[in-house]
Amino acid sequence: IFNFQFLFNPLLPQLNNFGRETPVYLYGIAAYRKYSSGSGYPNISLSSPLPGIPKPVFASVDGHEKYETRITTLENGLKVASQNKFGQFCTVGVLVNSGSRHEAKYPSGIAHFVEKLSFSVSTSKDEILLTLEKHGGICDCQTSRDTTMYAVSAEVKGLDTVVSLLSDAVLQPRLLDEEIEMTKMAVRFELEDLNMRPDPEPLLTEMIHAAAYRGNTVGLPRFCPGDNVDKIDKGVLHSYLRNYYCPERMVLAGVGIEHEQLVECARKYLLNVKPVWGTSSVANVDLSVAQYTGGIVKMEKDMSDVSLGPTPIPELTHIMIGLESCSFLEDDFIPFAVLNMMMGGGGSFSAGGPGKGMFTRLYLNVLNRHHWMYNATSYHHSYEDSGLLCIHASADPRQVREMVEIITREFIQMAGNAGEMELERAKTQLKSMLMMNLESRPVIFEDVGRQVLSTGKRKLPHELCDLISNVTASDIKRVTTKMLRSKPAVAALGDLAELPSYEHIQAALSSKDGRLPRMYRLFR
């Protein structure tokens, strides 16, 4: 009986020195027997507490955040941001306001080269890895359309070494001729792989941006075009880095370390350091604002042999249709994030329950009803001056026209009234995804760095959750109506014989029901 009672409520089994049970203990057993006996179950809902059972005492959280994000701006304009977090490891890195969108005056592909050449400092990469290994560390560099991020995860006691290494990697890269030649080979291999891989999502993302922002800012290629590989050399790289790698365009972010310690290391290694390319009296920075143009980018391609083997992927045609959303600095960013979560979607062979998004619109209205559709997924790309909400779908080349109409109808139906349950589900899913991702130290680092780089401050998770909770069905309807006024951006990959014209897709997105204009043929 004692063990059973302990499972029933671990706070109750209290025995005095003489082994006698206290009245509380006997009361708990009596309550258990009353509700567990075979005769006559009480008529009580499973969601209601049983009467006579002591109220449980739960652990409470002291405030929303144990540690706030602290920010210091050094004399040279560099921002230092930190978020303390319990543990013996930390993630520290430098984020630079530099990416493929800033390459209008340069050959496209510099950001791609910078990523591949990262951590090529005065010592070899092997020596860097050996140095980090002493502190259990790893390093990485990633570039996107608007940000370049150098990051290191290591033991807290190795912070001085980590910041010294980051300073060398960002401001003192060697860029030797043989390293640049090796990088050209790596870039060519990656471009070849991009066109051969079974998953076309990276290539489609590149195409939809080129269609939506034709020839400007975020529409510029993220991957180096094949024709530009031989145009990029040490002089071009130094010219670009001289203009964009300035302290006022950088943030040193850290998670899991004391703020004062990080500031001290920043002063030591990043305050009065001259970069290897020298300094420019006037930085020639491209301040262009993203101009949404809409349009179509098509790539005819034989997809029949993309994935051979015992279980080959069938030949598919991939379509991505997008409309302009908003910047992440605008208030409408949160309703768009909820709308994207509400659309959801995925592959037709995904397994799982509601937690995997099986109750999102693209599953319920598209994949569950049209067995021949292989994939339907919603994506939301947002930048400091614009954004793009798009749906990627894939199916057999003979059913492309029908697939496009299904997607245009889903866009039109977004402007209808969202059901209370589906809206609450989408908001809860978005909040849970946000909170679960922010349990990871590298994700917190990226969140701190990106927010401070773009806004100079950081919205804490509980603030974002409150904003998500306040989204209403009328907010969803309002942002969708505004989005549907923009021209569509279309990316198409594969066998495109049955692809409707751009004008027909635009007409469908301007209609009341999202249907494509009818086509009449004399001969089939």
Summary of the model, kept short:
With 524 residues, the chain is α+β, with helices and mostly antiparallel strands.
Would you write up a description of this structure?
This protein has 524 residues and is of the alpha+beta class. The protein has two domains: 203 residues, Metalloenzyme, LuxS/M16 peptidase-like (Cytochrome Bc1 Complex, Chain A, domain 1, 2-Layer Sandwich); 216 residues, Metalloenzyme, LuxS/M16 peptidase-like (Cytochrome Bc1 Complex, Chain A, domain 1, 2-Layer Sandwich), CATH 3.30.830.10. 38% of the residues lie in helices and 15% in strands. The protein has 17 helices and twelve strands. The strands form two sheets. It has a six-stranded mixed sheet, sandwiched between helices. It has a six-stranded mixed sheet with strand order 7-12-8-11-10-9, sandwiched between helices. Helix 5 packs parallel to helix 9 and helix 10 crosses helix 13. The longest helix has 20 residues.
